[in-house]
Specification:
The protein is mostly helical and 229 residues long. α5 runs parallel beside α8. The longest helix is centred in the C-terminal third of the chain and has 31 residues. About 6% of the residues have low confidence.
Length: 229
């Protein structure tokens, strides 16, 4: 399948298909009620909620998978994950503290497109279409900012009190990064085993094509939700 055909197919699929799982940034009703009932500093609970969010936030994890898919050197993995972490943490903290109100549908749609972007880059799509490749480091940082803003947008609807807000936010953010580290460990172990197989190079294109389609589905669902809201 050509790059253009893959793009058209993925975009069409994204506009036609939606799934409840596309609410990747939502906090469960049980956890939302728990957060709303908290008063004052609660470092432990927010640490746990942050770790749980990241470890079960498949949209984050799909993007991270795309980022490290072809990274082999530990220094490169640390660099790119650090850029994503800096972006994610910055807008999470600033977004809640400054009270930024942005459509959750639009932010989540951009997050879906971030998965498309990285997978498209992995299969050499930019070189084939444009003849050049954008700086991956800049892209990862920018999309990290979007991912953090998505979480900040949702979290504001659940935090009912400003008492202890900074401590709770810092704890939540630390939990997010710990959850990311744990998930990243599992992803790297799985990739390490897969890369040793002769079929890896052949299957890598299919895997990144699947990532693109997943991103288009997430984005299409959120765009539809925004238009119907």
């Amino acid at each position: 399948m050509s790059i253009l055909a893959l793009l058209r197919w993925g975009l069409t699929l994204g506009l036609l298909i939606g799934a409840p799982l596309s609410w990747g940034h939502d906090i469960s009703a049980e956890n939302a009620l728990f957060v709303q009932n908290l008063a004052g500093p609660a470092a432990g609970p927010f640490l746990y909620l942050g770790a749980k969010h990241m470890f079960t936030g498949y949209d984050h994890l799909l993007f991270v998978l795309g980022v490290i898919f072809f990274l082999y050197r530990p220094s490169h993995i640390v660099l790119y994950v650090s850029l994503f972490t800096i972006g994610h943490s910055t807008t999470l903290l600033l977004g809640v503290l400054a009270g930024w109100q942005i459509s959750g549908h639009l932010v989540d749609a951009v997050i879906g497109l971030s998965i498309v972007y990285k997978a498209f880059e992995n299969i050499g799509g930019f070189e084939q279409l444009l003849g050049w490749r954008p700086d991956s480091r800049v892209a990862v940082l920018v999309f990290g900012l979007c991912h953090g803003l998505g979480l900040a947008t949702k979290l504001q609807g659940y935090v009912a009190s400003n008492d202890g807000l900074l401590i709770n936010l810092m704890s939540f953010n630390l939990g997010v990064e710990l959850g990311q580290l744990l998930a990243l460990t599992f992803i790297l172990l799985a990739l390490a085993g897969w890369r040793r197989r002769e079929s890896f190079e052949r299957q890598a294109f299919l895997m990144n094509s699947a990532l693109m389609c997943a991103g288009f589905i997430l984005a299409g669902y959120q765009f539809t939700g925004y238009m119907l809201a």
